Amino acid sequence: MSKDTIKNFISLHKKKTGLPFLAGMLLAGLTASSFAVNTDPDEFEEAIKLKPDAENGKNLYKASCITCHGPEGWGVPGSGYPQIAGQLKNVVIKQLADFRAGNRDNPIMRAFASRRSLGGPQEIADVAAYVESMPMTPHNEQGFPIHLEEGKAIYDKLCADCHGKQGEGDPEDHVPRIQGQHYSYLTRQFNWIRNGRRRNGDEKMIKQIKNFTPREQTAVLSYVASLKPKKTAPPGWRNHDFDNFDRSWRPMRIR
Ligand code: HEC
Ligand code: HEC
C-alpha cells in the first residue's frame, strides 16, 4: 500500500476517531499478526440477534467502508474489492467476525473491521443491515460465457444445496450470496478457500472442490457470476445517501 493511498484514507476519514491511528499503524508497516486479537465469539452471536439500526449503519458505512467498497457497495470489477451490496446481513456479520479473528487473510480489512475502528456488536449489526439493504449492480464482472452450460451442471449438482438454486445464499447458516459477484473475486476466494489461505472455509465445500480441474473451476465460477440477483439497481442508479462522495476516487490495486 502506498503512502499516498493511506493519506487518502486519512483525509477522507478525518472525522472518524481511530482511523488516523490505524492508518499510522499501516504506515509503520504493521502486519495482521501484530494487531491485538480482540475477538469474543459471543460478540458475534450477539450481533446476529440484535435489532439493527440501518440509519446508524449508513453513517458507519460512510466512515469506515465507502473508500474501498464504493458508495454503491459494488466494489471494483477486476480487482480484489468485492461487491458487498445485497450480501446477507448474517453473512456480513460472520465475515466481519472472521476478519476480526484473523480467519481471513486480509490485514487492511482486518483493521477496518476491528473494534477500535468499527465498534462492538451493535455497530456490526447496524452496518451489516445497511449493506444488505444496498441494491446490487446489474453489471458485475463476468467470466467465460463458453463454459456456462458445463458450469450450470456442476453448480446444480454440487453447490446449489448450500448456496441456493440461484446463488442467493442462506441466512440461517450464513452461507454467502454469490450470485452477481465479480468473477475475479470469486476466483480468488475459491482458490483461497481451496488452499486454506482463507481459514474460515466450509469443510464440506473444501473437500468437494479439492479435485476440481482448472476448467471445471472456470466453468462453475463463470456460471455463478452470470446468475442474476432478483433485485438489482436500475440502470444509471446512484446511491443518494452519499451524494457528496468523490466518485473519481478509486482504491489502490491489491493482489
Ligand atoms: C481499505 C479497504 C477496505 C475497507 C475500508 C473495507 N473493506 Fe471490506 N474488503 C476489502 C477487501 C480488499 C476485501 C476482500 C478481502 C479478501 O480478499 O479476503 C473485503 C471484503 C469484505 C467482505 C467479504 C466479502 C465477501 O463476499 O467475501 C465484507 C462483508 C466486507 N469487506 C465488508 C466491509 C465493511 C462492512 C466495511 C466497513 C466497516 C469494510 N468492508 C471496509 C477492503 C476494504
Ligand atoms: C456444504 C455447503 C457448501 C457447498 C456444497 C459449497 N459451499 Fe461455497 N461456501 C459455503 C460456506 C458456508 C461459505 C462461507 C464460508 C465462510 O464463512 O467464509 C462458502 C463460501 C463460498 C465462496 C466465497 C464467497 C464470498 O463471498 O466470500 C464461494 C465463491 C463459494 N463458496 C462457491 C462455491 C461453489 C462454486 C460451490 C460448488 C462447487 C460451493 N461453494 C459449494 C458452503 C458451501
Short description:
With 255 residues, the protein is mainly alpha-helical. 51% of the residues lie in helices and 0% in strands. It folds into two domains: 3-137 and 235-242, Cytochrome c-like domain (Cytochrome Bc1 Complex, Chain D, domain 2), CATH 1.10.760; 145-226, Cytochrome Bc1 Complex, Chain D, domain 2.
Could you walk me through the main structural features you see in this protein, from its secondary elements to its overall organization?
With 255 residues, the chain is mostly helical. The protein folds into 2 domains: 3-137 and 235-242, Cytochrome Bc1 Complex, Chain D, domain 2 (Orthogonal Bundle); 145-226, Cytochrome c-like domain (Cytochrome Bc1 Complex, Chain D, domain 2). 51% of the residues lie in helices and 0% in strands. It has 13 helices and no strands. α6 packs across α9. The radius of gyration is 18 Å and the shape is globular. The structure holds heme C (2 copies). One heme C (HEC) binds next to α10, α11, α12 and α13.
Query: Strand content of the residues, in percent?
Result: under 5%
Which stretches of 5+ consecutive residues score pLDDT under 50?
1-39
Number of domains: 2
Q: List all distinct small molecules, including ions and cofactors, that are bound in this structure.
A: heme C
Mean pLDDT score: 83
Tell me the series of helices and strands, N- to C-terminal. HHHHHHHHHHHHH
Q: Could you say which structural class the secondary elements and strand pairing correspond to?
A: mainly alpha
What's the CATH first level of the largest domain?
Mainly Alpha
| Largest sheet entry | none
> What value does the Rg take, in angstroms?
18 Å
| Percent of residues in helices | 40-55%
Under CATH, the homologous superfamily of the largest domain reads Cytochrome c-like domain
CATH architecture tag of the largest domain: Orthogonal Bundle
Query: What's the total helix number?
Result: 13
